[in-house]
Amino acid sequence: MRVRAFLACLVLTLAGVSAGCGKARPQPEASVAPATAGDTLTVEATATAEMPVSADVKPADPTFKDKINPFLTKYCNGCHNADKAAGGITLDSYQSEAHARKDRKGWLEVMKVMAAGEMPPKKAKAQPSKDERQFVLDWIDNTLTKVDCTAPKDPGRVTLRRLNRAEYNNTVRDLLGVDFTPADDFPADDVGYGFDNIGDVLSLQPVLLEKYLAAADKVVGAGLTPPGPVASARQRYNPQNIPVTPRSARSKEPVRIVFTTAGEAFLPKFHFPVEGDYTVRVRAWGTKVGGEAPRVTLRVDGKELKTAAVDADVKKPGTYEVTTRVQEGERRVAVAFTNPFTDKAAKDDNKDRRLGVVGLEIEGPTNPVVKPPSAFLKAFQAVKPAGKTGGRVAAEKVVADFARKAYRRPVRADEVARLMKLYDVAAGQGEPFEKAVALPLKAALVSPHFLFRVEEDPKSGEAVRTINDYEFATRLSYFLWSTMPDEELFRHAAAGDLRKPAVLEGQVKRMLKDPKVRGLSENFAGQWLQLRNLKTLTPDKGYFPSWDESLKAAMVREAELFFEHVVQDDRSVLEFLDADYTYLNERLATHYGVSGVSGPEFRKVKLPDARRGGVITMGSTLVVTSNPTRTSLVKRGKWVLENILGTPPPPPSPDAGELPPTAELKGTVRQQLEQHRSNAACASCHAKLDPLGFGLENFDAVGGWRTTDNKQPIDSSGVMPDGASFSGPAAMKKVLLKKADPFRRCLAEKLMTFALGRGLEYYDLCALDDVTAKLVKGQDRFSALVLAVVQSDPFQKRKGKRSD
Asked: Is 457 within 8 Å of 448 (Cβ atoms)?
């Protein structure tokens, strides 16, 4: 605890903030108000949204006591009690209306399933009458969850948010022009409500403070170093330093890499310092089986550069290489064994075709491109003093402009003066100008005003305030770009006209067309569509031998390019449900069975039929909703309910059971699941989950098309709880298109959650209704959705204290 306090104190002291380092203080949930008028950051404890209620609360409301509690006891508490907690919901502990009001979210779920007729289960012996059910629904709606949308809206309160890893990387890139990602070395960010930019879960571990100090030193040093020629170098990697897939290809003692099945030896993040020509070289040997030598394919970022037959002997490995032009940055370099073969008639020692990898080399660059200086370095060089005089004046200009951008607001003279004290110390000790000015820049990068997105709280006596234009510009830029505002946003913030309808609409459309909108693709779409999960999944190659890293990378890129097309071309969001096009390269097109696509480059392709199109039938979605050896009807149905319809199912009951292992399945997965759902405790949830999974059963666990499962024909028909029927993925998508309103609301809710950095509460329903209505009015264009979000009260305002 002393180390933690010291490091926290150090960060605050470097920023000139009074931290009270010698005083112990309690550790409630805290929020920090910015030091816009003084020198301190104020830490105030806030109540959580749902406070526990003591067990001795006495019921005071006659309606709850006389009507609601008996209803719960008779029809609900048998399953929804503290012991069983069916669906994760307990209802037997509520003792009064006031107690129940503390859990509005839970009661919204209760109202939703009761209104749909799903609870109590139809097979339950005790069933409420229509009047009884309606009375409880009206009571929940009018007493617990009703929000008056004509009254002033509650904008909610966002917990002080630190920059997450993606935001930190992007911000130092735009601030200093660095071309590496220092935050990749930070601890992983926690996730809340499906996203990793939620203020309530972005904790600050002691080790992260140490990482901030190291990263500041690194990025400032790189930002102040003029670009120059990069000398060619050769980097060698031996088997013990090369990851492989499958892992069984590498032995332990001695360390060797020998493939008998398809696989890769790879460097996941090799840093190419500049654009130039690089030679990728592998030393390998092979054994010829079936009349053919093993083939090795050299790849960079999934792009196949060369394939060669390996006819060298184990005692004298051969060298196979390719020279290619590579852009600067971190790339995945891999060598793949692509033609495994087993001769079942041969003896055990000679039946498998084998490829041995002895080492991997990367040499270069030759013909490098010398990078131009960054905007930050140009500005620094423009004011750098030519002689020994004028150093402090030049340093102050650099520090003041840097702090303005880093803090994302105008800086006060006293803030600059505090930072300049560090320059004075370094210059007084004889440090050269670059090193002396680097010290206050590093201090700015470990300041709370840089690491956190600080917003003022309402003044005393005010419950809500409209955030100022700099705070608004910051919210806007981190929403759409996951980085700091650019100079154009700063100019509008300074002019005070960013909220004018014409200006705001123009800025939103400009930002959506800017290449930096890739941040929205990687961080919003990457989590909404669970593309990040795909990167860690490994389907069983024994069942799916065509699966490899290049196919995985292609699936991720397809989804990103599709999302970016909808965003940048301002297409209808309903194309996420169904579209007649997608983005493919040859590898993915071959996997999908689409002809006429050659080469590693992605391009927009018109699909030959309606079985694919939209995010639901993309390979990335189908893989993340499958098991390693087979499809999962439940996972696929759950994904559609959560991410498309916005009606996530409750968790399964503890005694739900599982399907048998793939090797023990008798008949199709559908047939096995229909036996499972005969259990009354499971039937109600599966009635919503299974039809959606059935409609996608023609896609196997790696997204390939099939017509049989376990040698039996696939039945991909389904009937939704509302009676809508379909057969196959094309018809299922048409049914979902008819449910466009739930999808619009689901997408709006997820985008608002990401934009606000907090989960939506019951009091956000009015704002969510407005956003969804404006989306419809805007012909479902993506820009209409974004504009509606940024015009909403929750996005433009801030509450002083959390609502109960």
From this structure: no
Residue 623 CB coordination number (10 Å): 23
Q: Which of 408-412, 611-615, 709-713 has the lowest mean pLDDT?
A: 709-713
Phi, psi dihedral angles at 466 (to 5 degrees): -80, 125
For the record, the structure tokens of 127 come out as 């069933």
- The angle subtended at Cα 752 by Cα 744 and Cα 613, nearest 5°, is 40
**Is residue 676 within 8 Å of 617, Cβ to Cβ?**
no
Name the nearest CA neighbour of 455 among 33, 16, 1.
Answer: 33
Q: CA 530, 535, 540 angle in degrees (round to 5)?
A: 110
Confidence (pLDDT) at 25: 35
Chain centroid to CA 452: 19
Stretch 389-401: mean pLDDT, rounded?
92
The answer to whether residues 519 and 605 touch, using CB atoms and an 8 Å cutoff, is no
Dist. CA 55–CA 627, nearest whole Å:
43
Cα angle value 64/67/72 (rounded, 5°): 85
Q: How far apart are CA 384 and CA 189, in angstroms?
A: 38
Say if residues 310 and 320 touch (Cβ distance below 8 Å).
yes
Distance CA 138, CA 117 (A): 15
CA distance 256 to 358: 7
Alpha carbons 534 and 575: distance in angstroms, whole number: 22
Kind and range of the H or E run holding 450: helix 448-451
* Residues forming a β-bridge with 296: 308, 337
Partners of 277 in beta bridges: 325, 366
Quick one: CA torsion of 540, 544, 549, 554, rounded to 10 degrees? -130
Contacts of 456 (CB under 8 A, 6+ apart): 33, 34, 36, 465, 467, 468, 471, 798
Helix (H, G, I), strand (E, B) or coil at 84: coil
Kindly report the CA angle at 686 between 681 and 689, in degrees rounded to 5? 150
CA distance 798 to 492: 21
Tokens 């820009």 -> residue: 783
Q: 301 with 332: CB under 8 angstroms? A: yes
pLDDT tens-digit profile of 763-774? 899 999 999 999
Per residue in 513-540, pLDDT tens? Answer: 999 999 999 999 999 999 999 988 989 9
Report whether 447 contacts 407 (CB < 8 A): yes
69, 63 Cβ separation under 8 angstroms: no
For the entire predicted model, the pTM comes to 0.81
